[in-house]
Amino acid sequence: MASPVTSGDARETALLELKKVTKLFGARIAVNAVSLALRPGEVFGLLGPNGAGKTTLLRMALDLLRPDSGQVLLMGQAPRPQVLERVGYLPEERGLPARTRVLTLLTYLGELKGLPRARSQEQARSLLKALDLEVRERAKVGELSKGNQQKVQLAAALMGDPQILLVDEPFSGLDPLNRSLAVELLTQRAAQGKAVLISTHQLQHVEQLCQRLLLLNRGRAVLEGEVDDVRRTYADGSILVSGAGDFASLPGVERSTRQGNGNQSLRLFPRPGVTSEAILRQALEQRLSLVSFSPYKPTLEEIFVRAVEQSSA
Amino acid sequence: MRKIAAVARYEFLGAVTRLGYLLTLVGLPAFLACLIAVTSLVSVRSARESFSRKRIIGIVDESGIFASTARSVELEAPRTMKIPGGDEQLARRIELKPFASLDQAQAALQRSEVASVVRIPPDYLSAGSIQEYVGVRRELDLTSGQISVASLLRPWLVRGLLEGKVDPEIATRAAEPARVERLVLDAQGSAAPADLIREIRPLVVPIGFGMLLVLCVFTSASYLATGLAEEKHNRALELLLTSLSPAQLFWGKLLGLWTAALLQFILYLLAVVLPAGFAFAALGLNIEQALVGGCYFVLGFFFFGAVLLTVGAIGNTQRYTQQLSAVFTLTGVAPMMVVTPLLAQPRGVLARTLTYIPFTAPLTGLLRFGADALPWWEFAVSLLVLTISAGLVIWICARIFRVALLASGTTPSLGQLWRWLRTG
User: Fold this and answer.
1) Do the chains contact at A89 and B234, CB–CB below 8 Å?
2) Closest to A65 (Cβ–Cβ): which among B236, B240, B406?
């Protein structure tokens, strides 16, 4: 029986659950008592600097590595080949045989996921079409561009229509157009009730796609929760304004910095004890022309840097 | 089973569509056939040309013993040559041409009027020495008709020495004392003239089987190692192992490449060995030989396949894997390196020992079987050894595989391998 995890008011069954898993390589602790629960229909971000233990965590989830302590549950069961059939994996390093033709390879991988040959070929064609690769189905993997190889790798992870998708840097090497194709495919899967775990350094995708995140540093979980909650937690009370006038000289403002592309926005840091409402009032009193006024939410990149620095200190 | 079959089919198709496999399968026999055809044609042509020319040897008899040197004589051809594929028998024509002096003979040699000059010195009778002069640049003739002057002249010298002193019949017999006819007595007590083909016939099929096995191991089985190393290196294995167990992957790979090797084996058998067998008036392939050869092929390939699979699993670079694979595959042909002592004593300690070592068992067993020196119980034991060894190697491979595939960058030490084996 799968363990329930609490998400707000809902109690949902976790498709993937890691319970205090620890992995040692010799004397080095690669992953230290990390827990994680991946729910149906959610896109989860696994973040961390290089060497934080993200890939080790994924490998434990896939039973490629066995944890030294802790437990891994896939759909409520210990990882076994029959259960793993329902997990799709996209490794960070491209790992497809260069000499094999695209359709042949995807059909083969689908068969390994338990699909009958004809069904597997049909699904491979459908995925290639969705990824705008149908004209390259007869090409050998090694003949494709880096971006197209990444798309084939993504298609390989999606073969067998897995319930759980573990994708390591899925957007690596993709141009914006193909990136949006990949994003669409992943969000579609989540909308169908599948769970998607994205391990990435490209934090803008986590902001765009993920509902929850886990930040690892030196094998430990240093930050976890809903993306919005995390951003709120790391908010420092500063205000983002755009418009015409000297906002920096308002009496309640201690200092300011330019923000955004083209510096069209200004980030205002209120003096201690001054609220954002007070700043707004001052701006209106001075008849400054306001286009927008909102509390500043730090980007995940800022949060990432701060959290890693704090945990390393 | 369905997954093993899927892996096997994928590996089989991957192997048989490789350029290297196709080149070995078609190119090698074609190359060998062309080479044999061209060299045979050139040899026959060269032999015909060589035999069509008369070989003239200049004789300078300073001893005065050989009265017949007053005139040119044609020697009886000491050796003939049969042209393959026909009844034509070529005989070398040799003429002895007398010269009055060594200077004249040497001048003729310089003008290439004679092939060589033989000087019989005045003290020949007491010293027994003669000299042969040849030109600095001579035509290289490797045909069987090219034999030494000493052999050519012996009957002529003997006749010359005895001429007029003994009965001509005795002189002839002294010149050529005996033509030995070799007869082989078989188990039924009937004697038949010795025949080289007949003598080597029992060995040809086993050696052929053995060489085919080695060739298949060298090609198809080595794909196991290099293919696995490549998949390990580019992390494709991680993707595969999320869908099937290491054991399923191993058996699938092994079966796929074994099928590719079997196809190669059968095609070689059909394209090369059987026609050659018929051409050489049936090499005597019987059901027993086919059975023994087949057993050793099947189990030998599984054993070597498993070994090379393990090599691929622990190897971290293609180069390392290829080097290590070559070492193991060479052990398979080791019996050929000791074939002389092995066949001299096919029931000896060396032969028996090599029969029970899994690396050398297939070829040794086949050679001993050909020499009619492999009892059935020894055959059965060697097959058992091969089976157990293959199973053991596959078990070891599957055990270390899970850890080995993630250990990239360095080549594992023996201690590390032992740890992997213990921890699985």
Assistant:
1) no
2) B406
pLDDT given at position A209: 85
Number of domains in chain A: 2
Q: What is the mean pLDDT of residues B55-66?
A: 86
Contact A231, A298 (CB under 8 A): yes
Share of chain B above pLDDT 70, in %: 78
> Any CB–CB contact under 8 A between B383 and chain A?
no
Check CB contact under 8 Å for B3 and A112.
yes
A112 contact B CB<8A: yes
Q: Which helix (H) or strand (E) holds B52?
A: helix B28-52
**Of A232, A261, A280, at which residue does a domain stop?**
A232
pLDDT over 90 for what percent of chain B?
5
In this complex, do B242 and A89 lie within 8 Å of one another by their Cβ atoms? yes
Chain A residue with CA closest to B236: the answer is A95
Q: What is the pTM of this model?
A: 0.69
pLDDT beyond 60 at A6: no
From the list A175, A179, A133, the residue with the least C-alpha distance to A156 is: A133
- Tell me the residue range of the domain where A242 lies: 236-296
What whole-number distance in Å separates Cα of residue B131 and Cα of residue B309? 65
**How many contacts does A have with B, using Cβ atoms within 8 A?**
70
Do residue A20 and residue A103 come from a single domain? yes
User: What CATH number does the domain containing A253 carry?
Assistant: 3.30.70
Residue of B nearest to A56 (CA): B406
In a domain, A302, yes or no: no
Residue A308 belongs to some domain of the structure: no
Task: Give the HSE-up count for residue B387: Cα atoms under 13 Å, Cβ half-sphere.
Answer: 7
